[in-house]
Design goal:
Length: about 525
């Protein structure tokens, strides 16, 4: 039935109302269609929009914001048609903080390799990987290892023997690699467990080789090449990027980026590798990412597939970069959506994709919903506001221990010494550790004693936020969060004269105990 048929028999007033409704719907539908047809490029900054203007439901997004609390989100960002419709940050994390993206770094390195391939610096993706390391003496070099290609490294089907705990295990290969003086050599020397292309196994070592290959074929440091070819053109300020002992930017982890910059990477893929009139990525690489076929054998989500350092759920359809503890850039091509999550715990990719996709109610603009929009804004403001936790009464002991340095026996937490300055106007802490990572050997910063965190200066692993309270007259508890880094520790200190007992607990459940003494 046509609209004109419905108008027949209406009173003149009814006809006027219906006409206004048709005009209203037509205008909004046309606006949304025009917006989608006119591609926007967030090089300088992202445009923002109400969800309804982009056919999304504010009430559904409000529920998504609330679900981020039990999911331990640090941030949640959703764009549709190139415009941000949701931008939430969970205290104590804030929008201006870079966030360690863990294994989402892999997708960035793969993107750089694809750019070099498009520009002819790499002749083909199935080029034998060992060719790029002919200057090295490689152990266990057999015909199977010689057959490893760049594409095998991209798909994590190299066949190299590797333990990263993907299907159980102790992550021994990762531990050994990071403890070695030459990461690339350590990876190249691994024996073969399978023929290349035979088995998928999650391997960050292969990603480190990809970063090294980017450096070799471009003649530039991977980070410098990224700044020239990717970050600069997309409007991303140069991010912090960890390096191995030889100075090679880490390929499997180690980038720290702001959520809005992470979204730019996703938007490049949503727009089929183009950016503001220039094609940056080659078609065959994009096709593989969009139609991932390598079975990840993931017990936690069996539908997952893999291609070119990207994860995918083809039945959704969704593809994404994924970092440990839900550092995710999710692309939903059919919905014209890029979503970014950063968090300090794991998340269910399929369920998140369904919730985000489910917030789409129309391909054109929806009527404005002032009440729902206000509720969404309130939810975003609420999660961004830090809530103070209770604090205990301050005992006289606080002044006695303030400024004393306590030395601890060897312990699993790695804490060697701790000094707390609690009695002055600027309470702070100083902790020395036995960590293998130089960035963790000295931890210092302010500490809140009023139930609110105080934040340190930012570092390569994010910044630290700390607060402490007296549990009783002899027990002081410190809550230390690596904001933007995902780690967290709770240190419980029980004082007895010049002695102190330390109990530490990490966010992942690991616990340790140690005894300490003060030299006065």
């Amino acid at each position: 039935m046509q609209v004109a048929d419905l108008v027949v028999g209406f009173s003149s007033r009814s006809k006027s109302l219906l006409g206004a409704l048709i005009l209203f719907t037509s205008i909004h539908s046309g606006t949304a269609s025009a917006q989608r047809a006119e591609t926007v490029w967030p090089t300088a900054q992202w445009q923002t929009s109400t969800p309804e203007e982009q056919g999304m439901d504010s009430a559904a997004l409000e529920k998504l914001v609330a679900s981020g609390i039990p999911r331990s989100f640090d941030s949640l960002l959703v764009t549709r048609h190139g415009r941000i419709v949701l931008d939430a940050y969970y205290a104590p994390y804030t929008a201006d903080m870079p966030h360690v993206i863990n294994s989402s770094t892999k997708a960035v390195v793969a993107t750089l390799l694809a750019m070099a391939y498009k520009d002819g610096l790499l002749d083909r993706l199935d080029h034998p990987a060992m060719d790029f390391f002919s200057d090295r003496n490689i152990a266990n070099l057999d015909e199977r290892k010689k057959a490893i290609t760049v594409q095998h490294l991209l798909n994590m089907t190299s066949g190299l023997e590797w333990d990263e705990g993907y299907v159980g295990g102790r992550e021994q290969s990762m531990r050994d690699m990071t403890a070695s003086s030459d990461w690339v050599q350590f990876i190249l020397d691994r024996p073969m467990a399978h023929a290349p292309g035979e088995v998928f196994y999650y391997n960050s070592g292969g990603s480190q080789l990809l970063s090294a290959i980017v450096g070799k074929i471009t003649g530039k440091n991977t980070a410098d090449y990224a700044q020239e070819k990717l970050f600069g053109p997309l409007g991303i300020a140069r991010p912090a990027w960890r390096r191995d002992p030889q100075g090679v930017p880490t390929g499997g982890f180690g980038l720290a980026m702001r959520p809005r910059d992470m979204a730019r990477i996703g938007y490049l893929y949503l727009r089929k590798g183009a950016w503001d009139g220039k094609q940056l990525l080659p078609a065959d690489f994009l096709a593989a990412v969009n139609h991932a076929t390598v079975d990840m054998k993931a017990r936690f989500e069996p539908a997952l597939r893999y291609a070119d350092q990207f994860w995918a759920l083809p039945d959704k359809p969704v593809f994404m970069s994924v970092g440990y503890h839900c550092q995710v850039v999710m692309v939903l091509p059919e919905r014209d959506i890029v979503a970014v999550m950063t968090a300090s715990n794991f998340c269910e990719f399929g369920r998140l994709a369904d919730e985000i996709s489910g917030a789409v109610k129309s391909e054109s603009a929806l009527p404005a919903d002032t009440v729902a929009a206000e509720q969404l804004a309130k939810a975003v403001a609420d999660v961004a506001t830090e809530k103070p936790t209770p604090v205990g009464a301050v005992p006289t002991l606080e002044a006695e221990i303030s400024g004393k340095t306590y030395k601890f026996s060897d312990n699993a937490s790695g804490i060697k010494t701790m000094t707390l300055y609690l009695a002055g106007e600027n309470p702070h802490y100083l902790v020395e550790t036995a960590a293998g990572d130089p960035a963790l050997r000295r931890l210092d910063g302010p500490i809140g004693l009023d139930g609110l965190y105080r934040k340190s200066a930012p570092g390569i692993l994010g910044l630290r936020a700390a607060k402490g309270t007296w549990k009783d007259e002899h027990t002081f508890v410190i809550d230390l969060q690596f904001v933007g880094g995902g780690n967290a520790s709770t240190w419980t200190l029980t004082f007895d004269g010049d002695k102190v007992a330390l109990r530490s607990k990490e966010r992942d459940g690991r616990e340790a105990q140690a005894d300490g003494t003060s030299g006065g």
